[in-house]
Amino acid sequence: MRRFLLTAIFALAAQAAAAAPFTVTVDLPKDAAPSDGRVVLMFSTKAEGEPRRQVSGETALNSPFMFGLTVDGLKPGQPAVFDDTAFGWPARKLSSLKPGDYTVQAVFNRYETYRRSDGSVVKLPPDRGEGQQWADKPGNNYSTPVRVHVDPAQGGRIAITLDKINPPIADKPDTEWIKHVRIKSELLSKYWGRPTYLRAHVLIPKGFADHPKARYPLMVYHGHFPDDIDGFRTTPPDPDLKPDYSERFHLEGYNRIQQQEAYAFYQKWISPDFPRFLVIQIDHANPYYDDSYAVNSANLGPYGDAINKELIPAIEKQFRGLGQGWARFTYGGSTGGWEAMATQVFYPEMYNGAFAACPDPIDFRAYTVINLYKDTNAYVLKGAAQDVERPAVRNYLGDIFATQRDSNYQELVLGDKGRSGGQYDIWQAVYGPQGPDGYPAPIWDKLTGEIDPKVAAYWRENYDLTYILKRDWATLGPKVAGKLHIYVGLGDNYFLNNAVYYAQDTLESLTNPAWGGEVDYGHKAEHCWNGDHTQSNAYSRLHYNTFYVPKIMDRIAKTAPAGADLTSWRY
Prior knowledge:
There is one protein chain. This protein is α+β, with helices and mostly antiparallel strands. 26% of the residues lie in helices and 23% in strands. It is built from 14 helices and 27 strands. The strands form seven sheets. Strands 2, 3, 5, 6, 7, 8, 9 and 11 form an eight-stranded antiparallel β-sheet that branches. It has an eight-stranded mixed β-sheet with strand order 12-13-17-14-20-21-26-27. A hairpin with a 5-residue loop joins strand 6 and strand 7. Keywords: Signal. This is Esterase. It comes from Phenylobacterium conjunctum.
């Protein structure tokens, strides 16, 4: 009888253990400093590699399963506990994982507290020289990947320790051609309540030292976080470089192609007949993203003024820029395309031309595939019989790799309150007002996709570039006529051509003066097409620093004022 009772007790205990919910604990190592932040837990079906390296915003097809938790004061011995309350994607709950073998890894994205001059107090991940990459941010802890068998129905607990830490990133050294500038921005430091810096990489022309009286035009190449001047290489391609394969462009050895084109740019840069000018790329990474979008905003502060009134004058003074509006131009693609156009619109007399390639939405009637002013939901196209999920990423053939819900749910895993460092969250931070909690007011509910029309109205009045141009054309028109040039592929991966259609119709309707710019479309061209019809998208996207030069030189010749210096830099 006693043996029977013991057997029964053990059986009941085993059933109780089996019924316990499936959980994962993520702990800091004993010597780690406590911190606020976001813990990201990943399950990959791939046996090889690190899950943190498999996360992509481009496709939902091969992503690891991801879950996120915001923690306050995470400290060793008091781990973050993941259960079904943690938000997940593509599986919404931890218990939704299918039984099987997974590679498991966690990353802790550390936050700091910012007390801004407007009185708001927020916890955000500072940039540490990596361009807001949570998986690689110096000081962030991560775990060694482990292979485990998971069966949520059987319950149990997995314990993970964040046993590794990302090292610091060294600054790039100056070279003969590339100089690195770092200034403390008084405007941004006041806003953020702590010393805040801007950096820039400056490409100087051939003969700079030999022509001390020469003064140069300035080309501002906008785009995502640059760790140096993009696409510039003073040596031929590495003969030992193992060729890779570009899935996007279906090209073998695309890494070698990139090196060859970078070397070709250098050869053109030093050639006798190439115009001499300065090129700069700006590092304005911030707690929300890899760059600020180069405008003033409620959530990021006065980055537009800091760049144009502090950084640009400092660079022109140090490197002998002409320092005149007729001799400044701006260009870029994607984020940089929007920034180029916005810079020309918001600082109309400071620049003499903007070349905006594949720009982020320049008209919010086509915020990718969403009309922020008429649609009620960002995730679904509502119908009488059923709703249809809206696409977010495609190729030119129309294959869909992620929906709007996919892209936004992935961001929600990486950070709540707009802190993911992702594309939709930075748009929200730049274009939107602050919410009552000090974080960006959501343009839509991140869970349901329901659009907030009041926030959309704020976006329209302050950052819808097409709307602003039409609204203010009486004063803006004389200052920007002939300066705005827009290029986009008809197969843009993020549907950015849709906004350009609206913008073109509006711009062509403007009078007194006529807008006098250019809009061009690339047949079959995907994202980053820059207006070059002579080469494929794989090559044209590598030529931003040279493709617009003939148009820029023509503009200078036609618009430079009497007595302008057109000769000291032409040697």
